[in-house]
Amino acid sequence: MLSEESAAVVRATLPVVAAQLDTITARFYDTMFADRPELLDGLFNRGNQRSGEQRRALAGSIAAFATMLLEHPDERPDMMLSRIAHKHAAVGVTEDQYVIVHKYLFGAIAEVLGDAVTPDVAAAWDEVYWLMAGALIAIESRVYAAAGAEGGRTWRTWQVVERREETPDAVSLLLRPLGDEPVPPALPGQYVSIRVRMPDGVHQLRQYTLSGEEDDGLRRVTVKRVADGEVSALLHATVAEGDELTLSAPFGDVALRDGDAPLVLVSAGIGCTPITAMLGHLARTGDPRQVLLLHADRDVTSHPLRADMTRLAAAAGAEQVLWYERDAPEGARTGLMDLAGVRIPEGAQVYMCGPVPFMRAVRGDLIRAGVAPKDIHYEVFGPDLWLGAA
């Protein structure tokens, strides 16, 4: 809870700070990486740095957290914090790194805002930062403990036992753990980080959903090659059967929950990966829940895991509705996903993954169809630019 004195200062200065947050976070990252270049080796995603996505996500999370403290002073935004904590755990963020971030972030605030940062303003925003950091540290500690990965030690070696080309730009890798240590459990919908050494010697991490799990302990990731995606391009070009990869423990707060409410599973493009994992779990466990599967893609040849989705949907007793923008086969619909004429089960829990514009549009349709906003759970690949707005 923010103190009354700090709340008054934050309320008065939030418009000024929020207006400059993009500049502040840009200065923060530039200064921190100039002084601490080792942080780009195996921790921060330099692709997101180049695109500005990480900067915008940080700015959005700070503004959203401060706003929530003011609007709901007796509550803590655990949903937002949990999402950030899982992202942090997936790359091995540790408690001491919050001190480093504090140093450079508040240096950037002072540099950008100048004389506007009085001692009272600095103290109030310092309180906001440590409330957020302290909550994240506590959540991350629990997340690490649940994964058996204390102190950010999440990594182990896996071997590729099969490589399967799903589409011209998506490949699945079936992986077997090496060593005798127990494998942390994975919930359907969670992701792992893959750490690779780039040609320039710098290690980079990317998160990929576990798109399937086998009874013998094998796990599958499905990687889409993206424009300017240095890790996905490397994995597509170089990884073969027999190679070894370094993976984190599974993380992610958007995982299929137990219950008896009907399920609506919604995806587009490579967003089908967590949905396929959920279907696999439902099929393996004989879960009796009513399931409606909705997926949209450009065409059949662009649809990753299409055969698996269809097979698992049948095994789980799911109703399946597909949309293709072109060359839709018999039984599928043509065009973008449109829920007109689709009966959404009453009281449904929705799990959704795909491009953010797609999810925004479909989320609106689902709410208009009677789904409660709290019952719509979504996963975003990369920094969550939807924080505070979803």
From TrEMBL:
GO terms for molecular function: 2 iron, 2 sulfur cluster binding; FAD binding; heme binding; metal ion binding; nitric oxide dioxygenase NAD(P)H activity; oxygen binding; oxygen carrier activity. Residues 1-141 form the Globin domain. The keyword NADP applies. The keyword Transport applies. Pfam families: FAD_binding_6 (PF00970), Globin (PF00042), NAD_binding_1 (PF00175). GO terms for biological process: cellular response to nitrosative stress; nitric oxide catabolic process. It comes from the Bacteria. Residues 153-257 form the FAD-binding FR-type domain. Keywords: 2Fe-2S, Dioxygenase, Heme, Iron, Iron-sulfur, Metal-binding, NAD, NADP, Oxidoreductase, Oxygen transport, Transport. Belongs to the globin family. In the C-terminal section; belongs to the flavoprotein pyridine nucleotide cytochrome reductase family. This is nitric oxide dioxygenase. The lineage of its organism: Bacteria, Bacillati, Actinomycetota, Actinomycetes, Streptosporangiales.
